[in-house]
Design the sequence.
DNA sequence: GTCTATAGATCGATAGAC
DNA sequence: GTCTATCGATCTATAGAC
């Protein structure tokens, strides 16, 4: 059995490493500084994580898992299509325009060359999981007759891409502050309105 | 007057640094290796660029300028809206799904924390310039009566965001190979079709 | 398990000869 | 301007005491 004291140190290391990697990046943060912040000795750090790379993998996995839990599960049973889309949009926008999500995204892209397996882990447990979930929701809306498309995955892709927009790039680059609540609300309304016109079944049938 | 031999060395340094930074990232490439690849001595390298940061700035500026020239100027005088959009889309997709553009994008995001001024340089001379140009084109289409929207900038944002889609993220993460010509063509058709439905003036007026 | 101390390697930047 | 040689700092990872 592993002692709880050792477990506590491990958690302290992970917490410190997560905070510093997300805030300052992988390269600029040394094992020395992480050990100091934990606070543990460098030898203890290496007892829990074989290498700096292994520590990064632990940080990525834990952060992705944590972020996924913030994506609210949407019930599509109640309400019409517009209200359902609005709920999904609000949950998605709240997630991607958070400092934590943007930071992990930057970190992954920066290290994607040297750790391609981390990129796959991030994509499958993050963006891809969200896409799949939305595609399933759209499929259910389709079965209820509120909606008609040819490819639910394309429809899901379109919806999330619209919700990102150019604003997401600006936030990712750090050249624009995160949008305030009202700003996000207005953005969602614009996008959902545009999306529903594009998905309108009457115009769709005229294709 | 600066000797042409010195100028040639400067160009050789920039070329080597660009290639290595884009392929391997900023941190992993040392001044030593750049000097060897140029090939010049490290002292000569520092004679042309005061620091590694200054060299990075030179690489970014030159690469952004080079990439912008590949964006074809679109004439909206001739042809209908769909053919115009298709031309713009083809030019945009060809640009963003190129190895060079993806590499510079990764590099900028990776270093955006420490060099925010480089992020602004990249955004204004890259994505923002493209957005502004498209917004102006849409404005002209609007004036010709082929098109009607409330905010040309929003319409431009939507168009480019759709063309990126989830595929762009996968390419940026390096977990998917660049799309082939036919794949890009099919993608553009899907997106333009969806976009034109969303922008359809009859449904728009019914708002 | 945890600590201090340090090995071993690499890096950015510079000094001095030509 | 260009070169060789090197400084000083920092990094990852480990050895050995407790």
Sequence:
């Amino acid at each position: 059995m592993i002692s709880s004291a050792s477990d506590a140190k491990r958690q302290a290391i992970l917490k410190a490493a997560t905070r510093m990697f997300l805030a300052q990046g992988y390269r600029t943060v040394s094992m020395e500084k992480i050990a100091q912040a934990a606070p543990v000795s460098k030898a203890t750090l290496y007892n829990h994580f074989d290498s700096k790379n292994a520590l990064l993998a632990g940080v990525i996995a834990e952060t992705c898992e944590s972020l996924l839990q913030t994506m609210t599960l949407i019930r599509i049973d109640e309400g019409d299509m517009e209200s359902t889309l609005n709920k999904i949009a609000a949950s998605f926008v709240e997630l991607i325009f958070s400092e934590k999500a943007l930071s992990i995204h930057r970190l992954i892209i920066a290290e994607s060359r040297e750790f391609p397996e981390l990129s796959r882990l991030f994509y499958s447990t993050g963006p891809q999981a969200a896409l799949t979930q939305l595609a399933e929701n759209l499929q259910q809306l389709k079965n209820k007759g509120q909606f008609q498309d040819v490819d639910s995955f394309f429809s899901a892709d379109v919806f999330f891409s619209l919700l990102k927009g150019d604003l997401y790039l600006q936030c990712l680059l750090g050249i624009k502050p995160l949008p305030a609540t009202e700003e996000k609300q207005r953005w969602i309304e614009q996008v959902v309105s545009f999306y529903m016109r594009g998905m309108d079944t009457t115009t769709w049938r005229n294709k």
Notes: Chain A touches chain B through 44 residues (CB under 8 Å). Residues 3, 5-6, 9, 40-44, 47 of chain A lie near DNA strand C (CB under 10 Å from a C1'). The longest helix of chain A spans residues 152-173. Residues 201-207 of chain A have pLDDT under 50 and may be disordered.
